[in-house]
Amino acid sequence: MKINFTPTDYKLQSVASGNIFNDRGWLLDPPGESKPSLIRALYKNKQLQLKGQEFGLYTFADWMPVGRMLKGSSAPVTYKSIGLAKALSLENLYITFSGYWPEKGATMPTCSFKETEAYSVGGRMTDAQKSKVLVVASAGNTARAFAQVCSDNEIPLLLCVPEANLDVLWFEKPLHSCVKLLATEKGSDYFDAIHLSNQIIGLEGFYAEGGAKNVARRDGMGTTVLSATTFIGRIPDYYFQAIGSGTGAIAAWEANLRFIEDGRFGSHKMKLMVSQNHPFIPIKKAWEAHSREMLHYDHQEARCHFDEIDAKVLSNRKPPYPIKGGLFDALSDTGGMVFSATNHEARDANLLFQEIEGVDLHPAAAIATASLIKAVEQGLVEKDAVIMLNITGGGEALFKASHQLHYLKPEAILPTEASITEIEQAVAKLNW
């Protein structure tokens, strides 16, 4: 069935200055401004109108900065919890699930909400971007999502991933040759993969996806809140999610502000309740120190903590926390809190969720669930509050049980301190 898709009408705005400007291509920073700031999309349609299930994720395109619709997308699914809600004595617990759970209508083959980012970023691409190679650094789920989406839509992509995380790059079928992978050697972490990607985007023919600075990434992630709020009929009171960079929480805050402007779903701000995997907790430490700036985190200590945690996707050492419009502002504006949970607590939460909700969780989603349990035990949420639990990935065991897996292999594994010459030589051997 052919679907007619109309590009979204929007402008961009600097959070720091309030300046409004057109999206002239792949803007990641406000033009002509020296103060670091995120930019936001201002959509012509102030009231969100859903387009229908046949549009997949693009049912939310009114509030996505996209000019085209890629094939194969799925939207997050929201439902009212019975099992977990009863176990925690909560009256209005809503779960927004992004992953693979056909019984609930969730059909994301990478089992992660990172697909929402990839389809939105791909939908924002202009003709200028299509002729170059997109570069994405990732600790796992983002790489798998972008690889699948770019493969299915034949978008040239170069991934940079730590060697220790290569086992997460599994797929239901071999990928298109437009997707390539470089890895940083064992002992490296997400920070090292980001450093490698930054070196590559300085080379001709490559461009950065942009991370949190890319409005398409944030507004893609924000579709989880669009799903929950339109399903519930009102803005939630609390929002629970595990974070590495905190980009998803920033996106949730921005979606909340759009719903307030919409006028049909309430005028309140949901409290951001975000969590990290102990002992990798740099955001928690900065927030509890009332510091807008991130605190010093020794490289070696960070790498050791990275090795210890189950939820390795939550391991960003330089998150968009201090930047204007970033996580510090989001937490401050919503009266948010930052939790942490251990591997053991997350594993227990995963087992509980599987038993009473019926599907397995990604480690990061288990961290969020463990933090919800803590918040309830500590009396930090009211029993009758409307709570959104953002399950950012799940159903992997379910998916793997019914599919034969194929793994993406790296074209090269580079030293952590690789020279620009070594990087150039490795890149030169790649053919799209």
Sequence of strands across the biggest β-sheet: 4-5-16-13-14-15
Major β-sheet profile: 6 strands, mixed
Q: What percentage of residues falls in helices of 4 or more residues?
A: 25-40%
Can you tell me the CATH class of the largest domain?
Alpha Beta
The residue ranges in which pLDDT falls below 50 over 5 or more consecutive positions are none
Q: What percentage of amino acids are in beta strands? A: 15-25%
In short:
This protein has 432 residues and is of the alpha/beta class. The chain contains 15 helices and 18 strands. Strand 6 and strand 7 form a beta hairpin.
Describe the structure.
The protein has helices spanning 83-87, 114-124, 127-130, 141-152, 190-200, 215-221, 223-232, 247-262, 282-288, 299-308, 327-334, 343-356, 363-377, 396-401, 420-428, and strands at 10-14, 20-21, 39-43, 77-80, 92-97, 100-101, 106-107, 133-137, 157-162, 170-171, 179-184, 206-208, 238-242, 271-277, 337-341, 386-391, 406-407, 412-414. It folds into two domains: 77-111 and 216-399, Rossmann fold; 133-204 and 404-432, Rossmann fold (3-Layer(aba) Sandwich), CATH 3.40.50. The protein is of the alpha/beta class and 432 residues long. Strand 6 and strand 7 (106-107) form a beta hairpin. It contains 15 helices and 18 strands. The longest helix is centred in the middle third of the chain and has 16 residues, at 247-262.
